[in-house]
Amino acid sequence: MSKQIERSPELEEVLRTTFSVLGRMLDEHRLEMKVRELGRVWNVGRGVARIKGLPHVRSEELIRFPGNKMGLAFNLDADEVAAILIDEFKDIRAGQPAWRTHRIMNVPVGEELVGRVVDALGRPVDGKGSIRTSASLPVERPAPAIMDRAPVSTPLQTGIQSVDALIPIGRGQRELILGDRQIGKTAIALDTIINQRDQEVTCIYCAIGLESSAVAKVVADLRRHRAMRYTFVVVATGENPPGQNFIAPYAATSMGEYFMEKGQDVLIVYDDLTKHARAYRELSLLLRRPPAREAYPGDIFYIHSRLLERSTHLKDDLGGGSLTALPIIETQAQNIAAYIPTNLISITDGQIYLSPRLFGGGILPAVDVGKSVSRVGGKTQLPAYRTVAGDLRLAYSQFEELERFSRFGARLDEDTRKTLERGRRVREVLKQDQFQPSTVPQQIAVMVAVTEGLLDDLPLDRVGEVKKRIQQRIHDELPDVAEKIEKGREFAPEDRDAVVRMANKWVGSFEE
């Protein structure tokens, strides 16, 4: 007769521990023995590969090809997988194997990127050696929730007087820059990056579909003005596969979010999203997705909205960091009602429109104040701007309309003539050379001079000289007033009077 074994609590604990260890060992063994899913390439197009097999592949999962080439699963059809290729595809041919990687696309992030030039996958392309980062983030990340966002209230100074005074940008805002070809869109973005020196803002310039020579010039300009100390560049040129051009802005945004989530302020420039949309259209047509308006796929709005919605100002309990976006797009024949421009105007918080008419007239930067707007507006401006430039935007827009009307040869009364003369001088002080950003006190001093009528009797060709002299002297002659302006204190009447006296002295010296 067998004896019944008495089970004690200690024995039961030993048995549970043993079975748990055995279970983990079995799971690890199954994981090691898991058969790697293998598919076969049956068709390769420009930047697109079609694969038979891989029945369990997931959307946007990385797929590996021979030669360590990578692709991104995009179309999951019943009998095939269509992948966009993010590496050079010349060596990928029909009949070659393709493997699942069981992971989504990540890019390296960290302080080590600052000062470097990398491609859309985070690989260095500046010839300065490898980059070793300790962290990585997915390329596609959800935008912060509404309850995680704080109001946009801190200004991002561009150093461009026409923008800071009339179309202010705040940290965490999305401000679109648009206009026809070669009229200064990139110049505004670069001046904004250069003006962030000593402002504790990390800057990212993301080049999408540009020529290599154009990107090299941008990098050279940033280095010449010592902006690469706080900037890095993400490059996908026109010579790269369309998959890299599509991925680049999302990768750059993930790199920027690393700094934002650490409580830092970030500025990112997308140059430009017109070419990004064209790259996606090319991929979509190759993937046989149905075209819609202007042959763009129906989800073209979604690819840009999910990108730009990631730019925000986080709440203080999440670090208080911000990601400010300056997307650039190109219009054709000044048509801002085209498909992509209207999409992006509706997504962003305002736009800076550059006019070919102003550019042709030598008015640089060629900002059309009437068609430009900031939907955040004066909430992000320092108090001195609100005091001095309050009605300047409306008055300047009215001047431009009045000037066009006066060209018909109508007889003008004295008040109208004075309004035109004042407006022309406002336009002169808003002119600004590239790579010469001005400080906030310099901008305020010049605006005080022009709004008080101190420049009304000056010849137009002398206004620029007086402007430069006033800007040079404001910090030296009125350091206390300049400090008050920079620190965001109230611009009192006595401060305004002091600026008027200082400016009047230099205007008088030029009148003599």
Which helices and strands appear, and what pairs or packs with what?
Blueprint (H helix, E strand, L loop, with lengths): L8 H25 L4 E8 L2 E5 L8 E5 L3 E8 L4 E5 L11 E8 L1 E4 L7 E3 L15 E4 L22 H6 L9 E4 L5 H10 L6 E10 L1 H13 L6 E7 L4 H19 L4 E7 L1 H14 L13 H9 L13 E9 L8 H9 L2 E5 L1 H5 L12 E2 L8 H6 L3 H15 L7 H17 L9 H12 L8 H18 L1 H8 L6 H19 L1
Parallel strand pairs: 8-12, 10-14, 10-15, 11-12, 11-13, 13-14
Antiparallel strand pairs: 1-2, 1-6, 2-5, 3-4, 3-6, 4-5, 7-9, 15-16
Helix pairs in contact: 5-6, 7-8, 11-12, 12-13, 12-14, 13-14, 13-15, 13-16, 14-15, 14-16
Describe the structure.
The chain has 512 residues and is α/β, with parallel strands linked by helices. It has 3 domains: 38-105, Elongation Factor Tu (Ef-tu), domain 3; 118-127 and 149-377, 3-Layer(aba) Sandwich (Rossmann fold), CATH 3.40.50; 387-511, Lysin (Up-down Bundle), CATH 1.20.150. It contains 16 helices and 16 strands. The chain has helices at 9-33, 161-166, 185-194, 212-224, 242-260, 273-286, 300-308, 339-347, 356-360, 383-388, 392-406, 414-430, 440-451, 460-477, 479-486, 493-511; strands spanning 38-45, 48-52, 61-65, 69-76, 81-85, 97-104, 106-109, 117-119, 135-138, 176-179, 201-210, 231-237, 265-271, 322-330, 350-354, 373-374. Strands 8-12-11-13-14-10-15-16 form an 8-stranded mixed β-sheet, with helices on both faces. Helix 13 (440-451) packs across helix 15. The longest helix is centred in the N-terminal third of the chain and has 25 residues, at 9-33. It is elongated. The N and C termini lie far apart (128 Å). Residues 30-34 have low confidence and may be disordered.
